[in-house]
Amino acid sequence: MPAIAQEQGSRDVLMVAWMNREALAATVARGEAVYWSRSRQRLWHKGEESGHVQKVHEIRLDCDEDVLLLTVTQLGHAASEPSIACHTGRHSCFFQRLEGGAQGRQWRPAEPVLKDPARIYGAKKG
Amino acid sequence: MPAIAQEQGSRDVLMVAWMNREALAATVARGEAVYWSRSRQRLWHKGEESGHVQKVHEIRLDCDEDVLLLTVTQLGHAASEPSIACHTGRHSCFFQRLEGGAQGRQWRPAEPVLKDPARIYGAKKG
């Protein structure tokens, strides 16, 4: 099921990833977000490659019991780093904003890149 | 694709519903959230039965372009009503919190019912 990560404090919605029972159990056990990577078909400890680990404070479930909401602290590779959740090096994955008038709407980036993705990862996304 | 509704001001995550292109276009045209009801297989103007309309301020798309984030004002049936997004009569659909220790965890309601669902709807959910 989809799992939303919301940042404690700022309350920004950082990202949505997927969780199954195993991922939820691993998240509870670690106290850090562990998602189910659909592309890799395995558990994905968020930050395992990037260092951008998410400390989990609270887990909620919605009324239909098919979406999770995690309250997290987004940690950086170093303590001095800004909060980066997105593999593009941005704070939040929701950086594209729908803009424009009757002439045609389009998605435009509305958040800066805080860190070059090439400096976050070796070859892989994580 | 999943669409998250986040309340402007409080920044609470209220609910997640589904949108297709048609629902997104209708949302933009109306300025109010129109989702795709998977159970009813039709466009669902949120609040059409409950009066709990969502005024949409901003629409964002994530990096994978498969999740939407709406910033909304949750309107009530009457101006004096509290902000209710959930069909259970609660503020947010994410009212179940994972609690408990090693003895076994469980989901427990963590938000009050603000309005009796029987008073929100006739026979149907909306």
Q: Nutshell version of this structure?
A:
Two copies of one chain form a homodimer. Chain A has helices spanning 21-30, 117-120, and strands spanning 2-7, 13-18, 34-37, 42-45, 54-61, 68-74, 96-99, 106-109.
Q: What do these coordinates show?
A:
By secondary structure, chain A is mostly beta strands. Chain A has a single domain (2-120), classed as Phosphoribosyl-AMP cyclohydrolase (Ubiquitin-like (UB roll), Roll). Chain A has helices at 21-30, 117-120; strands at 2-7, 13-18, 34-37, 42-45, 54-61, 68-74, 96-99, 106-109. Chain A has a four-stranded mixed β-sheet, with helices on one face. A two-stranded antiparallel sheet of chain A has the order 3-4. A two-stranded antiparallel sheet of chain A has the order 7-8. In chain A, a hairpin with a 5-residue loop joins strand 1 (2-7) and strand 2. The longest helix of chain A has 10 residues, at 21-30. The first copy, chain A, starts with a strand and ends in a 6-residue tail after the last helix. The relative contact order of chain A is 0.20. Chain A binds chain B through residues 2, 4, 6, 11-13, 15-16, 28, 58-65, 67, 69, 86-88, 90, 93-98, 105, 107, 110, and chain B through 2, 4, 6, 11-13, 15-16, 28, 58-65, 67, 69, 86-88, 90, 93-98, 105, 107, 110.
Task: Give the topology.
The structure is a homodimer of 126-residue chains.
Chain A: E1 2-7, E2 13-18, H1 21-30, E3 34-37, E4 42-45, E5 54-61, E6 68-74, E7 96-99, E8 106-109, H2 117-120
Parallel strand pairs in A: 1-6
Antiparallel strand pairs in A: 1-2, 3-4, 5-6, 7-8
